[in-house]
Amino acid sequence: MTGRRNSAFAFWLDYLDSQGGLWEPSGEAVLTVLPDQLAAAHDLPESTLITDDPDIAREDGVQFLGAGHPVIDKAAGAVIDAADVGTLTLPHGSKPMSTEDLLALIRDRMPVDHGRIDATGAPIRTHRATLRLGALVSHTVSAEEQFTEVSECLLDLASLIAWPEQVAARVRDAMAATDTGPARHVPGNALIPALAATHSLLDEAAASRGRVLAQTADAERAAETTRANEYYAAALAAIDKRRTDADPDRAALLDARAQATIAERDRRLAEIGEKYRHQHKLRPYRLHIIDVPAWRLTTDIRRGDRRWPVVFDYLPLVSDLAPTRCPNCDAHAPLVATKTHLGCSVCSPAKTTPPPAAPAPPSRNQAAQPTREKPGKTPKTVPAKDKVAAPPRADRKQPVARPILPGKAEELEAAAFWNYLGAGENRKLARLIAPDSPLAALTRVYGSAGALRGIGVPTGHTLMKFTCQNYDRPVAGQRGGTAGALYTDHGTFPYLLLWSPDRLLEEIFPYAAPWHLGMAARMILKPVTHAPPAHHKLDTVAGLLLDRTTARHGLTFTARCLAAWWRLPSPDDLLTRFSPRVIAATVDRAIRYWSGTAKATYPDAAVAFNADESAVRKATAVVQKQLRLDSTRNW
Hints:
The chain is built from 22 helices and 18 strands.
């Protein structure tokens, strides 16, 4: 038998091992010996030759076991019913860290606005618990279409924050490659909230995935609905025609029949809607509590004489800090040390002072009538304090723009957006796009096709039709969203349009789920990593961002980087102080950091753009002072 086996056959052999059976290669087949209980459960002989090759299975005495075989399906069901539950500890394999090195790393990875992190103790060798929950997700798209997928989530137990997929993959690899020991006991009061949070994340991911799968049945649902409407419209038209010349008694019977036909039509349309309504079901099959090695450092976050104690955990296995939440509002956001408490950029946003109002121009009468002074008299002067308007108070809270929830008007504007794009009406298209936004940046690079390139539509595709539907709650960073799918002559492309507070379109994502970019990266959504040539020549920094950020993180991040770069008030001054590579690396790291992605570090950005790391750190302070990026304004 060949050494390469399909996954279903390999699963059966592993299952046989776990149940106390034996097997060994025998020529081109495999000889198996089953325990009595296993043989009876699967109705197989105690000793038999099996193969996953249909040609070999034609020989006498060799049984075929391949994907979809009832024996393998039954074994898979038994494994899922038994579940995979356990606790384990990953061993410490890293060298001890000094207080200075660990503190420098924490300061680099966890900047605190208006504050400074100081160590109050020495590093402690410890572990940090992670919850791993896996589930089978069954999607029902229609009565005929059903899908089953595997979904998994790893959650930090202390913060109830899901690990990015890159971190989760490292933990899984470490579990498979190292010897593990039993984990410490986790109390139930800590485990129950973590299970609820993980199940909620899996359920949200399944719902978003279901909306994408349901789009495959849109054409069938529309066709069946149209047929039903045409059928009942014809029936009602026939009844109405017969009612014209009918006597009163006959007309009353026809009216009753028309009412019955309308009720039957409504029932049929509801039946079609239910037939194509997406449903999903989670079936958990794996639950692991994993103790991940960590170095713990107790610190104080200081602002002047005020101190707030905070504990940080560094995980050498994933080369990153464990996630933290704001002690004031429990949000997962950069920390901010205010004058009164320790908060974050969500509950303590940076205050902005509006520019002073311009003085009103003089009226026509004032301009036409000069002031006449009487001889011998000194004109009366007005004190300066009465002539100069008082500046706005810096400590006065400015109104925060609330996210808009798109309604029918925005849905019509989204439809007009795609229609203008298909017709190439650039001027009308520009009126719908927010200036200085990522979508405006894509349009500047690719013209009216910018949105198409942003969701991965290749050059040469012809736009055929589209769907759009508004979300009834803020999405993707607390903004209004309109999602749908774009159909071309070669494929289907999901999208998510995001609205600015001014009810203009400011971003487009290559997926229909309500996630911000950081969440999308954790959910392993494939970004658009191909950047077609720009329609006109770009400056050096923009060219570097289009080339390198797109290849590494996708065109959506590139659009944010370009919007930020072109929003800088004095780019020429920056270029006199720093090289284009340093500026490109600085903008790339800043945008990814404030977008909530993993590995938004100085070394990573410096290596990607072949720039000096120390120069990137210096440029970051200058760029941040001009852009004032935060978790809500992340470009």
